[in-house]
Amino acid sequence: MRGRIDATPGDAEGAYIAILQRLEKLIGQDFVRAVIGLIAVSRGGLRESDLQGAFKMLDLALNAADFSWLRQMLRGHLAQGDMQQWDFSHQSFRRAFYKEYKQEASHYSRVLAFLFINPKPQKTSSPSARLCTSFTTPAS
């Protein structure tokens, strides 16, 4: 354990990359890198349903148990917002991903752009859909 602590870089971004690489060994590189990468390129985080759509485009499976385990392992670094979106608690994680994985970040950015530009029709049962459709303009 002491060796792992001594090997961890002293800067925040380096430490986040070390954490990410450790999680890739424990859970799986493609899964961890996709979840972290997709969240990193999003502006304000992603809902689990957004991740599922992106994972389908990447031909990956968003395993609920692995996603839960990843969230538990990153509990101080991942937070769920008021619209049920998962995002980083600190921007250093996002910066670290961009710095270390530029090509993957570009790829995940294109995946999310395509996903949100070409959404499949969905029921309005999600909180964000209800929120967007529940506002009316006031009568003049």
Give a summary of the structure in a few sentences.
With 140 residues, this protein is mostly helical. It has eight helices and two strands. A two-stranded antiparallel ribbon has the order 1-2.
Annotation field: number of helices? 8
Order of helices and strands: HHHHHEEHHH
Distance between the termini: 67 Å
- Average pLDDT works out at 80
Give a short account of the largest sheet: 2 strands, antiparallel
Low-pLDDT parts are 129-140
Based on secondary structure, the structural category is: mainly alpha
Radius of gyration (CA) equals 17 Å
Sheet-strand content, in percent, reads under 5%
Topology readout:
Layout: H1 2-7, H2 12-27, H3 29-41, H4 48-57, H5 64-73, E1 78-80, E2 86-88, H6 91-100, H7 102-117, H8 127-134
Antiparallel strand pairs: 1-2
Helix pairs in contact: 2-3, 2-6, 3-6, 3-7, 4-7
Structure description:
The protein is mainly alpha-helical. The chain has one domain. Helices cover 64% and strands 4% of the residues. It has helices at 2-7, 12-27, 29-41, 48-57, 64-73, 91-100, 102-117, 127-134; strands spanning 78-80, 86-88. Strand 1 and strand 2 form a beta hairpin. The longest helix has 16 residues, at 12-27.
Keywords, please?
single chain, 140 residues, mainly alpha, 8 helices, 64% helix, globular, disordered C terminus
